[in-house]
Each structure stands twice: as C-alpha cells, then as structure tokens.
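Dear colleague,

Thank you for sharing your sequence with our group. We've completed the structure prediction you requested, and as agreed, I am returning the results in plain text so they can be pasted directly into your records. Please verify that the sequence below matches your submission; if there's any discrepancy, let me know and we will rerun it promptly.
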Amino acid sequence: MPRHILIADGPALPEPTEIDRFWQRAREQFSGLGDDYQVRSLGIDEDTTTQILDYIKTRDKVATFSLPWVIDANGFPYPEPGVPVVLCDYAGKPRLIVRLTEIRETTFGQIGHAESSLDGPPVQDPEVWIPLHRQYWNGLLAAYGRECTDDMPVLIEPFDYVGEIT
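Please find the predicted structure tokens below.
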C-alpha cells in the first residue's frame, strides 16, 4: 500500500506498523479512503499539537500549510486534492484523518486574512499568523540553509475532516 510521509520538525516519528494498523481500521470505518495517503504531524510542542487536533475535530481549523522548499529538499510527493492525511499527535500516535480538498500556491508575503482565517482560532488574524509562522518556518528552514522570505512559496491545503478511528 503506497504511503507518503511528510513530517514537520519536532514531533516524534510515527511507528510504521502502528500507522499501518490505524490505516487498516480507518479503511474499515470510512468508505472511499483508497490506498494512497500521507502522514503528518503538526505543532511545535505537545500542548500546541493537542490544541490543533482539537480545532480540526471541531472544524475551527480547516486547512494546513506546507512549504515547497521543504517538500523538494526531502523528495516528498506534493499534496494532491482528494488525498487523505493521517494526523499524528506529538508522540507520533495517529489520531485523525482529513482529506485535502484543494491545493493553492501563494507566497508568504501574500498571506492575508483569507488564508490565515483557515487556521485555528488563536492564529486566524494575519498579525498573529504571519510572525508565528515566520518564526516557526525559520527554525525549520535553518536546516536547509534557507529562511522565510516574502517571496517564499507556500501551499495552502484546505481539507475536510474525515474523523477519528473508534
């Protein structure tokens, strides 16, 4: 079964066998998931990750954001509409499934309220979203010898919440 793994810096890496078991249960619980999926971790620490997952469950966060520079540097596949994403907690345990609905590319300098409002409530204001993401992405990009700039490409990835595995 093909699997695309895209992990942010910081959280624990998920165990492949645990992901496989989770995905098998997900396919039994939710019809139409298919074989292809991605695995991701979000957040900068355990509390933030838990909060993000809660915002996704309540549908207060309806998109995520990725950096083509990181995708390209790691040889990860680009996200595609319709692809389910297994979201893990900070300990690397699979928790939720979302399905990407579209992929839009912009630049960091063009992020405004229309984009930031898709994120969780504490960061929906661009005046909060922009400095927070600049700081986070600068930490992530340092390993690649890059830094967050206004012309840096950003993928906006709206999603539908599929659910938790029961």
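Summary note from our side: The mean pLDDT is 91.

Kind regards,
the structure core
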